[in-house]
Every structure is written in C-alpha cells, then in structure tokens.
Amino acid sequence: MKPQRMTTNCGLPGSAFLLVVICILMPTVVSAVGLPTITFGLEDAKNPQQVSTALQVLFVLTVLSVAPAILLMTTCFTRIVIVLGFIRQALGTQNMPPTQIIIGLSLFLSFFIMSPTLNEINDKALQPYMNEKISQKEAIEKAVNPIREFMFSQVKEEELSLLSEITLDNKPLDKEEIPTMTLIPAFMLSELKRAFTMGFMIYIPFLVIDMIVASILMSMGMMMLPPVIISMPFKLLLFVLVDGWGLVVGSLIKSFR
C-alpha cells in the first residue's frame, strides 16, 4: 500500500508550499530587520590629520604582522627551541616529541623565564598607559628598556662588538649608545652560539652509545643491521634513567640566571 503524499488545501505538496511561503515572507523579514554589509573604499584626504591617521593604522597593522617574530627573537625562545630540537635529533626518535610539543614547551618556558621582565613592563609601561598617566611614546620607551636589559645580560661581547663595528661609525662608550637595531642581531647571534654549544654537549653521550653499538654489531658480523635500530632503545633508557628532560630544562633555566 503506497503512502499518500501530503498536500495542502491549495493542491500543492507540503514542501513546495513551505518554499513558496518562505519566498513570500523573506523580503518582508529582510526589510524589517536588515542585513549588515561591509564596504571598503579609498577617499581623498581633506586635511593632514586624516593622512596621519591612515598612516598610523597602516603602521600598526604592519607591526602586528611581524610582532610575534620580534617578540620571539628578543626573548629566550631561540635558545630553548634549538636545544630541544637537538635533543630530538640526538635521540633519533624522528618526530617524537612532535614539533608542536617542542614549540609549546619552548613558549611556556619562555614565559616562565621572561616573567620578571614582563611584570616590569606591565608595571612601568602598560598599566600607567592604560590609566592615562603616561603618553604612548613614554610607554614604548619604558617597555623597551626591560627588554634591552635582558638582552644585554645575555649577549656576548664578541657578537656585540662585531655588530657595533659594522653598523656604528664610532665605538659606543656605554649601553645607552648602542641602538636596539644593533642589539637585537647581536643577541640572536649570541643565542645561536650558546644553543649550538649546549646541543653539542647533549650529543656526546648519545654519540658514544651509537659508536659502542656499531662496534659490537661489526664485531658480530651483523653488517646489514642498522645500528640506529639497536642503539635507540638504549639511548631512550639512558635519557629516562638520568631524568633527561629535568636536567635539560633545569640547565636551560639556569643558563639565563
């Protein structure tokens, strides 16, 4: 027995009748409520103030696009993420831990290490500016000073002298004469040097295990068996027994003191 199709009093099927009702009522609803629209356009500036405002908005958008890179490169993030990457390579675990885990751990360790500097920026620059006690220019200057102090405490004299000779005409007499644009690349070079030094020290015990396993396999005549397959469990065991993550993280934190 076939099911009967639902129809309305006007002879139309139920779904068709509902569609007709929606089409009839939609213009009324739209006209009553209204739909938002977004428009973009360019107009001729009528006074210099409008030009200045447009340039400020463009500058702010440009700074926001590069702000994450600037903040990461002027903090301890560089050293931490490189050292953790060296650990993964030394263990030979390919993608374990995943890159997202390494970056996340590096970010949280960076926040932990930079917390005194961030608190100083918040107390001396951000909060007074939010309370309208200082101007925007003063807030930026007071926010940059703690970052500069942190970079000066970690940068090495060799890298700072190298960048100063390249970018400055005269030899600076004190920290105030060194511009921030010279300090940042010097700080980054110093961080790369320290990170690779720590990575080399981390590699040594795992390299010894690889050499021992390779020598044993060669003495047993097992030439076709890759030594990495045998050495990786021993490296993982050694890393776990000595509490490797705790030692590495503790050393990283202490290296910034």
Short description:
With 257 residues, this protein is mainly alpha-helical. The chain is built from nine helices and no strands.
Topology diagram in text:
Elements: H1 14-33, H2 48-73, H3 77-91, H4 99-130, H5 136-154, H6 157-167, H7 180-219, H8 227-241, H9 244-254
Helix pairs in contact: 3-4, 3-7, 4-5, 5-7, 6-7, 7-8
Q: Any overview of this molecule?
A:
Helix 3 runs parallel beside helix 7, helix 5 runs parallel beside helix 7 and helix 6 crosses helix 7. This protein starts with 13 loop residues before the first helix and ends with a helix. It is elongated, with a radius of gyration of 31 Å. It is built from 9 helices and no strands. With 257 residues, the chain is mainly alpha-helical. The N terminus is likely disordered. It has a domain of 136 residues. The longest helix is centred in the last third of the chain and has 40 residues.
What labels would you give this structure?
257 residues, mainly alpha, 9 helices, disordered N terminus
